[in-house]
Amino acid sequence: MDEKETERLVKLINVVLENIQVLQERTVRLENQNEELQKKIESLEQQLKSGSSRVGAPKKTSLTVPPIPRTDITDASEFQYEKTKDGKGICIFGYVGFEKESIVIPDIIDDLPVKIIAPVAFINCTFLKKVYIPSSVVEIGGMSRNQSFEKGTVLYCQTGAYAIRWARDHGYKVRPAQEFSLD
Length: 183
Known about the structure:
There is one protein chain. The protein is of the alpha/beta class and 183 residues long. It folds into 2 domains: 1-69; 76-179. It is built from 2 helices and 9 strands. It has helices at residues 3-51, 162-169, and strands at 79-83, 90-95, 102-104, 108-109, 112-117, 130-133, 139-140, 154-157, 173-176. Strands 1, 2, 4, 5 and 7 form a 5-stranded mixed β-sheet that branches. Strand 8 (154-157), helix 2 (162-169) and strand 9 form a beta-alpha-beta unit. The two termini are 42 Å apart.
């Protein structure tokens, strides 16, 4: 195994380890949200039992239900990314989110525009069928011309965006951004 293959294998192992960590963190967060919801349900049940025979104005109560994470929306935490060399944008170099058929690459992460999709950023995401690429992206795959997406993935882009030209040059099917849906 040469040095390049070893480096690539180390990177892949690191991605897998990061995926495991992200999933563990999400599991803990969901378990905590579930516990909070159970406590609120128990509290409401108690209020209903005790309030069935009360006299006078109804007691005002409020229930704040924490948002349940949606798996149909692509969150920035589902991407591996870093600031560009000039510090004025974001480079996405991997996807660590749920296995979804459709994702939206955000146009802004950490208050910076997403400008670059690195070579092979999504190459092992064989489950991806549709990807929305924002018009903020001005480079895909770098100078190496490696494929950043699996062949067969349909790319949805804004009219006139760099991504349209790149996708066509690399043999991807391109659809207008307004046709994109998360189903």
